[in-house]
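Sample intake sheet
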Amino acid sequence: MTCMSRRSFAALGASALSMGLAAVSAQAQEAWPAKGKPVNVIVSAGAGSGQDVTARILTEQLQKEFPGSVFQIVNRPGAGTQIGTQAIADAAPDGYTFGVIALPTAVTLHLDPARQARFTGASFEPAANFIYDPGALAVPADSKYRNLADLVADAKARPGAITVGVTGPQGREHLDVIAVEQIAGVKFNPVFHNDSGVALNSMLGKNIAAMQGSVGDFLTQIQAGRVRLIAVFSEEPSKFAPTSPTAKSAGFHVISGVSRGFAFPKGAPRDAVQKLEAAIAKIGASPDGIAQVDKMGFEMKVMDSQTYARYWASETVRITDLFNKAAPK
């Protein structure tokens, strides 16, 4: 090989290396989300559920925030939201998969040893909380139960006979029912379902007497005259169901609800987390975003990533304490 050819070879190698480094650098600096590259948004419940509606409201707004981007809903219902939540934790941490996190349900799933969940709070990168939905107990519109006191009275007369639909065992809805049982000194018959949409259909089909969920789960059916709320689990009546009594006003002081936020799997790019966090904050303050959330009967409750992480930790402490108190002595 001549001296010239060696120099040419060296120059060619240097050029190729430079091009390779430039390509790597360009890839590393690629703005999130890349136009045309799908971002999967995992929903741990079926179509039409509170989680699903929450995700669809957000993704519609995100399409406007990031023109040319593609945010696609991926429904992964089952096992009381455990399947979908696990799918978020297991996803590649490349910024192109995130999902809805329902608290405190995600906490109860990993704290319940029978569940054998492979995730904890440390499995996720919280981006932001989006909405809050107070707990609620519903019955078919033509039910004989006019209020929570009627339901409790029947449960006292027929221990273990009154069926109440909930999602998986030890989920937030199930814990709400247990709380009412403890306060009222009664025993219901909880009927477990894969997600709230299935439970709602079961109640509408008169297969169960009542269903424990959240206000937003029932709003459409309330407006259609098919469902009544006999108790809302908040300090004050819901603005979306102002004539529905609170459990507290009936003498059963149970305060509960579900927060729905969004998180990436642990290790996701900080840029993606921060951009989603900022977008949710903007959407949460926009008239259009607020109107869409109000329309679905949810309360807008945006938390930034740090506040959301602290709230997640506090819910873990609260539910751990509840589990310890409920454990057999």
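Comment: The radius of gyration is 24 Å. Residues 240 and 295 are 9 Å apart (CA to CA).
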